[in-house]
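Journal club side-thread
Mid-discussion, someone asked how the predicted structure for our own chain would compare to the paper's figures. Pasting it here so we can look after the session.
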Amino acid sequence: MSARSREKRLGDLLAVEAEFADVMVSGLQQDSRKVQHGDLFVALKGHHVDGRDYIKDALKRGASAVLADRVGVSAEQVVNAHGNVIWRDDLRSELGDIASRFYDEPSKQMRVIAVTGTNGKTTVSHLLVRLLMRLGESAKTIGTLGYGHPDHLIPLANTTPDAIQLHEILAACREDGARFVAMEASSHGLDQGRLGCVEISTAVFTNITRDHLDYHQTMQAYWEAKAKLASWHGLRNLVLNADDAGVAKMAAVAEHGVKIVWFSLRADANVDVALVRCLYHPRGMSLDIRVKDEVYSFDTRLMGEFNVANILAVLAALVSEGFSASLVVDALKEIAPVKGRMDCLPHTSGAQLPAVVIDYAHTPDALQQALNALRHHCTTGKLWCVFGCGGDRDKGKRPLMGKIAASSADRVVVTSDNPRSEVPDVIIAEIRGGMEATDQVRLVTDRGEAIRDAIFLAAPEDVILIAGKGHEDYQEVRGVRSHFSDHEVAAAALLQRAQLSDSLPKGCGSVSERNQQECTLASLAERLGGELRGEDLPFAGVSTDTRALKSMDVFFALVGEKFDAHDFLQQAKVAGACGAVVSRWVDVDLPQIKVEDTRLALGAWAGMFRDRFHPRVVAVTGSSGKTSVKEMLAAIFSEEGRVLATSGNLNNDIGVPLTLLRLDDSYQFAVIELGANHVGEIAYTVGLVRPDAALITNVGEAHLEGFGSRNNIAKAKSEIYTGLVPKGVAVVNLDDDYSQDFLTLNASRNVLTFSIENTRANCFAKSWSLDPVGRPRIEVSINGELIQLSLNLIGKHQIANALAAAAAARAAGASLTSIRDGLNKLQPFKGRMFPKSLGRWHWIDDTYNANPSSMRAAIDALARLDEPKVLILGRMGELGEQSAKLHADIGAYAARAGIRRLFISRDDAGDYARGYRSVTNDGQLFVGDGPEAIAKQLIESMPEGVVLVKGSRSAAMEKVFDEAQKRLLHEENH
């Protein structure tokens, strides 16, 4: 869109004194930083920047002349200006004419349709362009979403660009062959003269309601700005909404001879285009529309009554431009929603999911219209509304929008929407002030969390409106813009809801006895949006396993790939359950609460339960080390108060809710481990946890089978940061390959870093060593303060774990003394490099789990020891297509580390052996047919030494130790 090939005499662009008339201009520029040789620099006084302050800079950069605004400038300043500086009394009003002449009057060579109104501008302009293209015309759009082809838009800073840029864009459209341009005309743009000298063929008015009063101050001033378009010189057609009083008054200001075309949603209205009938479907509408005396019937994918109004406006505009109504209707049948404008997200999973509609509605009227419109589509379920109000904007609309949402939706989630320089919770409080007291309103500051909450809590027949941002792909907090897309978050949440893991751990979550009085089946049913059949009884806890169920527990009947707990309701009753949460009614004499999905209901209850208590919470994930770090954090926090920590492997979408349901107000701290085997799982669980600090230990190859690549693992792990509370701290490992990605992701959050050797980290090892047994001794620097650690744990990898724990604990407010004492007191934990003595051997039990990263760490620890060494390996699970290569890599790693006795099970032998033998033929490689054979070979072949046993949970490598113990006891007894 460069204008460098153009060159005009300044005298041909505007009337100037003779000395300036022949100055040649090769470009127009309002930003001195972009001035090139030969440009005409336009120096205007703006709201935030005064272009006149940069006149000298523009001239130095090669500007051939400067047009400067004389307003507010003294005569002395005018006289003292050097160079080709031309002062104008009303420069802003001249810009359109100057730009139009420079670009050879592009609007006169096309048909420009200008659309204005408080709501609907973007949808109408995009519908116009898409319909024109379907009608065989070349058309472009200019507006909020950008300019150009609707599928390949170039972003714009303003809905209506400044006069210079607008004519430059129009020229580009002309040169690209466009015959039509549909553009949005904002009230700001009209008031500031940005459309100056644009020849407009048709003007379309959608509606006029409250908006932009921070700029216009009064509704009258707002109306008058809009009215400039209705009285536009040279206008041919004026399309008006007869149902809007403010728009109807525009007819009175139109120039004589302008053709006025009216449209209305009322079948009996005496207008040119009217709605006769509308039938609403879950994802669209069936319409009968009258154009003059002809009625046209068709189906559309667009949603909402105001989209009917938009369709009427578009029909009226194109008919006024001379197109056949029947051809326009045929084109309308194929039109998809404009992104972010009543945009119903598609899903192809086949799962029963709520309808999620994203809309730009950010004014009281737009929100009311959106909710009213969707109420028609919400025939059997509930209507949800997720919305917020922008910071540094019209504060008067906040309580109004709160009142509208609470009165028009069944469920409301109030959240953030570009808080800018304001405190998000203050904005939310102002919105909440307009609502009556009700349990149907949730306040969730983090917008991503709010969207996920709604999607996971809604029933499949519900409709969710996510309002305010529409197409926007950023969130502005404290003046910093970070990437954020309602579409991306909602699509991910829908996918997560459809693809939640079906693994079912044993165990139950118990509600604290202090809160029993608050927990009844009726209140639980209401909170979960379910239906209670049977007696309303109090309950004391929650269980997912009849074998662990306690009296007065509620039994959640989960359904998985290989089980259906609905089959065990009779056993639950016998065990003492007071009721059950089910997804289908079961013929058992037990009170039941029916919900759509019991797994999601469990998470929803846990999330609401989490809201009732306020411990300091740290969430931990990572490919390796997360359980060790969790235990370290628990030890640190135990120095300061009572700690809730994840038990066993309860770190998935069932285990995390069960852990949260153990909370009560006696806990000052909680350490929650989050695991995942697919992208999206942590986004769901961290949304329930809402931590104060979130930590990724590292990104390795664990669970490759579920993710497909290490990049996907990093993406999945990074979801932990999305659940942080507003002032939460992201803890980042600078030694990890993905540290820069994580730092970028958390650019707008508080961050605390750790590293073994990187001294730029907040927390690093100033020095470290290993004692003869392999236990670390570390001098740790935390924000410049030093502590000494003497760990009782084995392995260099425990240095990184300790630093991770220290950083996360500090992020959550723990003292340096607590960090030092907690870590130094911590004893080895079973299955995690746990030392044992048995017979003539020292054993290291690392059988809890295994992946390539933790395998290498364990091998390094064993290799440092001086005694004769044996490595016994079981398989690493869930590595997918790379499993063979990664097992061979570990075999080779062990050989390079100097391990000369390797024991492996026959089932796992091939790949480990292949890798081991690729490095050395000197080592002893023993292959056994299981734990019994391995234990037998070990006892018979090695008189003494250190034995490290490691493998994934599925390999059950602890059986080697158990078998060796049996054999040694047998030998002692004989």
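Post-session note: The mean pLDDT is 88.
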